[in-house]
């Protein structure tokens, strides 16, 4: 995994923020970047600084009028008598038949969807640095990296082609998707932030070459309120290429993971060449914007693993994840995909029949390349002996030598929840959904696929 971050982002320090009509300190603070950097450091990732890619990538997504406003609006605002240190508009036209204003007072409302995106002296430069970080990660993936992470601040998924909103100014996720479209006919976006990615949805609303999926909390409860509902399936050529999945209130782990699992099926059917993940780390119930009240690190690890299983070239673009003690740890858990060093001892020869070997594999990395190469080189058919009960699994091992003598590579994996498998809830009242037959069959098929067997032997 490679990571990219431009320290120029730190200069953006918004002050104005309204919560139920009461001014408060903005949750999108520079310290976010520091905590995320600490999370990267904890797993040995030292982000590289991107080059300045210039205005081209930004212009692929955003309109000329909007980009000019972001670049010059603050200076024009400061020239007004009695102006505040940040642009905070007091009008937001609905644009039904509106005319683009000439002055900065009117243009601020035209280009700013709400008061949660104040523009300060360093906002545009920081937003450009954030976009450059996203472009740098995309370039790595285009150059052959399987995945890359962009630490982007300010975030971007609430920004439209011509409008800022919700702490966002340049839509980094959309910029990455456009860059990847230069290589791949189809690109998918999966947004897992607690808030719906309304800006991203709006940018690709009429397009079928970019699939947009957002899994978020109920927009009737939290921002952006007016967008993110299930009935929003896009229009024109894009009809059917936008999916929203929201949970009522603050839901538990299983609701989010079930939504991401469903999204994975949609993404596979779309068959994209690459994936962009709009990464939100708003998980903990103690956060300003929280998704659930469970174990942060565990949920982030499971989420990272579920997305990694899609097996696509992937750019991870940081979106939400506001100040909390667990922010850096959540990022580390997500990027490592829940990789845990297990200390299970190998089964010795005295515990197995002659000719049978045991191997322990991390469940998030079933595709061991060396095993795959050995099986392909041998050219023998494979026989997977799968049983529902651990006792029957042991019985299979008794006949493995006979199957091998008949010319098969005989494999007897422990099913999830049995034998030496780990990572499952073991409580008496644990949810049994992970052990449904569909998941058990998928495990077996995934193992065979990972070992190079992708169709039945005649």
Task: State the total count of DSSP E strands.
Answer: 11
Beta-strand level of the residues, as a percent range? 5-15%
The major β-sheet equals:
7 strands, parallel
State the low-pLDDT regions, or none. Answer: 285-294, 338-344, 362-378
Explain how this protein is built.
- This protein is α/β, with parallel strands linked by helices.
- It is 34% helix and 10% strand.
- It has 13 helices and eleven strands.
- It has a seven-stranded parallel beta sheet, with helices on both faces. It has a two-stranded antiparallel ribbon with strand order 2-3.
- Helix 1 (31-42) crosses helix 10.
- The radius of gyration is 25 Å and the shape is elongated.
- The chain starts with a strand and ends in an 8-residue tail after the last helix.
- The model is unreliable at 285-294, 338-344 and 362-378 (pLDDT under 50).
Describe the secondary structure blueprint for this structure:
Elements: E1 2-4, E2 18-19, E3 22-23, H1 31-42, H2 56-59, H3 64-78, H4 104-111, H5 123-142, E4 147-150, H6 172-181, E5 187-191, H7 198-203, E6 210-217, E7 242-247, H8 253-270, E8 274-279, H9 296-308, E9 314-318, H10 327-336, H11 369-378, E10 382-384, H12 390-405, E11 409-411, H13 437-450
Parallel strand pairs: 1-4, 4-9, 5-6, 5-8, 6-7, 8-9, 10-11
Antiparallel strand pairs: 2-3
Q: Care to give the gist of this entry?
A:
The protein has 458 residues and is an alpha/beta fold. Helix content is 34%, strand content 10%.
